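Dear colleague,

Following up on Tuesday's group meeting, I ran the structure prediction for the two-component complex that the binding team flagged. I've pasted the input sequences exactly as they went in, so you can double-check that nothing got truncated or mislabelled along the way. The structure tokens for the whole assembly follow below. Feel free to forward this to whoever is handling the docking comparison.

Inputs:
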Amino acid sequence: MRMRIFLAATCWLFCAGAAQAASTEADFKTALAAAETAEQEAGALKNQWIPTEQALAAAKKAASAGDFDAAVAKAKQAEALAKASIAQAKEQQTAWRAGVIR
Amino acid sequence: MRICRAIAIVIAALAVAGARPAAAADSIDPDADFKAFRDYFTKRFPSVPLNDFVNGPYSMDAELRKQWEAIDDFPPYDFAVDRGKQMFATAFKNGKTYGDCFANNGIGIRQNYPYFDGKTGEVITLELALNRCREANGEEPYSYVKDEMASLTAYMAFTSRGKPFDIKIPNDPRALAAYQKGAEYFYSRRGQLNFSCASCHVQSAGEHIRTEVLAPALGILAAMPIYRSEWGGMGTISRRFVTCNSQVRGVPLQPQDELYRDVEYYLTYMGNGLPVSGPGTRP
């Protein structure tokens, strides 16, 4: 019985550890590519945000320092911000009319 | 026959009625916009004389106005006017001057800018015209945001002081499209703070944002270029637009981007008839 509990605990700890494994450079490159694609789309709509650019810069800086966990987190933040700016631009393509002085 | 004609009339009437809402939504009517814009501000601020709107925040706040009047005894933009005058009179390497590029030798013409150029199909601002003049004469263009450009436009505005703005929107689909794009940019929310130009200068005009008083959009470009205490120096219309975008955490466009020129076209047209008051001073 004790042996079973020990094995189960070991297995759980292993699995949990695996789930929180450190991010790799490949993870960062994937996250960065997604963020940059979204930011380019925002640029085409002439509606980029400064915090997106800052998050992208922070992601690259963290990656240069070898901190891929932080780099991935910042790249994902940049992607989320870029997507929000795209949504804003698309919404405003018609919503701007509501503010016009009539 | 009569029945057929009646049916045709009814169908035509329904078609017209059905088309009307879409046409109204898409129609571009600068005259109607101008009237509505002016009525909004004059009704909202009935105690402000019409021509005083060009003084921006000083038309909204008596205490601020006193400070401005005291500052204006020795205007901080005077150096820029003197420098601009000297630059304006100095010949390019080919012997020509800025005056050769403009009507009336560039004196007293600020009120006609920006204008729509039917040949190129674009809005030409004074800043753009100055740099194109330089390039046409073999000179390097200046930065659009401050220093030399601010000095040149300060001098040119000074020679036009008091002249009423006279911006024309020709009956040309390209001109109307530029005007409409300018309006769209002005009213579109942008940046992480989700502000439009109108959020501050229409809906919140006259209110405080921290210690500053927000200028009304009516006549807001009449005092440009300006000496701004926040900048510690002179700035052009381009600088003002770039700063506005940054303040709402949006990445600014390049100075003199087509959209910025369109906004300038729209906003200056809204101030038609108001006097040129530039160069100006702002907190």
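Chain A has one domain: 23-99.

Cheers,
M.
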